[in-house]
Amino acid sequence: MQRKTFLKTLALASAVTAMGGMGAAHAQAQVEVPFYYPVAVGGPITKAIDGFAADFMKEHPNIKVTPIYAGTYQETIVKALTANKSGSAPATSVLLSTDMFTLIDEDAIAPIDQFVKTDADKAWLKGFYPAFMANSQSGGKTWGVPFQRSTVVMYYNKDLFKEAGLDPNKAPQNWKELSDAAQKLTKKDASGKVTQYGIQIPSTGFAYWMLQTLTTPNGVLLANETGTKVTFDHPKVIEALEYWVNLTKQGVHPSGVVEWGTTPKDFFEKKAAIMVTTTGNLTNVRKNAQFDFGVGQIAGNVRKGSPTGGGNFYIFKKAPKEQQEAAFKFIQWITQPERAAQWSMDTGYVAVSPAAYETATLKKYGQEFPQALVARDQLPVSVAEFSTHDNQRVTKVLNDAIQAALNGTKTPAQAMKDAQREADRLLRSYQ
């Protein structure tokens, strides 16, 4: 009797152990997707990304998405490429769309096309705005998938427009109107010190992008499509930089270099009546502006237009195949119209597909808050954000040249000619 009981107990224990083993095997079968995401501090964006990851994992229990918040865009690409070289590449990362050539040159990323197999996959890939795909495709291949994308827009204080006798429901439409409005909106105290600038365009971090908001309306591109040649010394580029420098000389724009990060604060504190910055600031402005504000497309000159901007999803070539496939599933899932719509409302970024604007949620939001549609409506006249091979170094050359012109240490013409010479040197091996 005892022996039978003992054998039963032994059999039960073996069964329990086997089931435990099956559980462990199931846990091991869960594919981890390390996901580098560019944000320096916690806050609404990390909450949104964590929420998306959690919702995706509920629907896909065999995949574990691990967001790794890696700092600024610049810090994130350095960390992602370092991890890639050390044999522990992330499965995916959101990096600047302009990092595409660098990532191709480093042989770090896999073309998205190789994961696109079904008709549904093909329809999904064709569903993004063409303006965003300009920075996502090269050499007949798709290298990145648009996610947090933007255009540059003008934010303006409607109350200050009224005070200055300007139409509060109409942003300046061209360079002349912009200069005239900036003059009317600039205020000085009794000693002649400016207390409110008519316009503010930041020149740290993304100076090249802000220059593009002047070169695009002036009918000139800063680089060719293949990222091998730049046109910094083109007369129309110099003219665009001169327009920016002249705003400072006229005293309607702060002199010298203006910080990217403090520009929204200056706008909230009425130190600037118009600010030019990313639509990615829209939710921030909506929450913090204690006044009625308008959003306008970038003022035109010979044409209208803005550069696109922001980040794409990339899949890393050295990540294990099952991680790459799982990352592709996550990327497809997070860019579906309903989620793209939610992301746009949470952040102010442009939803990446026309289908997102057809969702009930974004239609309602657009009716209640029409400012959210300005960046989207600018897409048909938008151009690819400046991007070349050896992008970080070439961009630094351009940023430094813009700052030299704004600081007055070089004329716009000299700054751009010097930058052209240095960029030609950096790009020679790619031509």
From TrEMBL:
The keyword Signal applies. Residues 1-27 form the signal peptide. Coiled coil: none annotated. It comes from the Bacteria. The keyword Signal applies. Keywords: Signal. GO terms for cellular component: periplasmic space. Its main location: periplasm. PROSITE patterns: TAT (PS51318). It is found in: Periplasm. Belongs to the bacterial solute-binding protein 1 family. This is Extracellular solute-binding protein family 1. It comes from Acidovorax delafieldii 2AN.
